[in-house]
Each structure stands twice: as structure tokens, then as C-alpha cells.
Design brief:
About 10% of the residues have low confidence. Helix 2 packs across helix 3. The chain is about 65% helix and about 5% strand. The chain is extended. With about 130 residues, it is mostly helical. The chain has a two-stranded antiparallel ribbon with strand order 1-2.
Length: about 130
């Protein structure tokens, strides 16, 4: 596999996502999947690069969800930024609820041996990417 292919999203995943929006009888050519694979991968790299630059300027090594939302907005993709921001808030809320339920269950049933996570860590985004630059 070449370095360029390492940077692309898996084509099976791209095809699966494309099929979800088409009628069940629709067929997707290999060329269409490859084109979408390249476009989606380039878009993700473009947005992530912008977020990474922001983190670098702020002397941070980790790109988080808020940075991605900021990058989308600063690149003019405001509709995407708004939708992803709403998703990110819902995700964090569900994660906090899961943690609260875990702690409640551990309190009733004793310790489960699992390492507990700080629920406040989700406030600024616990799902993040480490910046390797």
C-alpha cells in the first residue's frame, strides 16, 4: 500500500455510506466510490489541518472536537460547524450520563474495578486527536 492510500478513508466504508442515501436497487461504480473516497479524505485533511494549525499556534498538541468545529466555521462551512457542534454537545451529554450511571452502579454494587473518568474532562472534548507535529 502506498503512502497516499494510507491517507484515504477505507473504500468499503465510503461505499457503505454512499449506499445509505441511495435506493436499495441503485448501483455505485468503483470509479464513483474512489472519487468520493478521495474527496472525503481531502476534506477531512483540509479541516483537520486548519484545526491543527490553530492548536499549534496555541501551543497545544491535541486537536479536539471544538477545534474541528472552529475549523469548519473558519473555512466557511458554517452549516456543518453548527450541526457538528450540536452533535458534539449531545455526545458529551450522553457520556456524562453514562459516567454518572457507572458511578451510581459502582456505589450500589461496589467497585467494578474500572478506572473512573473525570466527567468534567468531557466539557472541552474528550474525544480528540493527538497532533504529531
Amino acid at each position: 500500500m502506498t503512502d497516499e492510500q494510507d491517507q484515504l478513508l477505507p473504500i468499503a466504508n465510503v461505499g457503505r455510506i454512499m449506499k445509505q442515501t441511495l435506493p436499495p436497487s441503485a448501483k455505485i461504480s468503483k470509479e464513483a466510490k474512489e472519487t468520493m473516497q478521495e474527496c472525503a479524505s481531502e476534506f477531512i485533511s483540509f479541516v483537520t489541518g486548519e484545526a491543527s494549525d490553530k492548536c499549534h499556534k496555541e501551543n497545544r498538541k491535541t486537536v479536539n472536537g471544538d477545534d474541528i468545529c472552529w475549523a469548519l466555521s473558519s473555512l466557511g462551512f458554517d452549516n456543518y460547524a453548527e450541526a457538528i457542534t450540536r452533535y458534539l454537545h449531545k455526545y458529551r451529554e450522553l457520556e456524562r450520563e453514562k459516567l454518572a450511571n457507572q458511578h451510581k452502579d459502582e456505589g450500589c454494587n461496589g467497585s467494578s474495578g474500572k478506572k473512573s473518568q473525570n466527567p468534567n474532562a468531557l466539557e472541552k472534548g474528550n474525544s480528540s486527536l493527538t497532533n504529531k507535529t
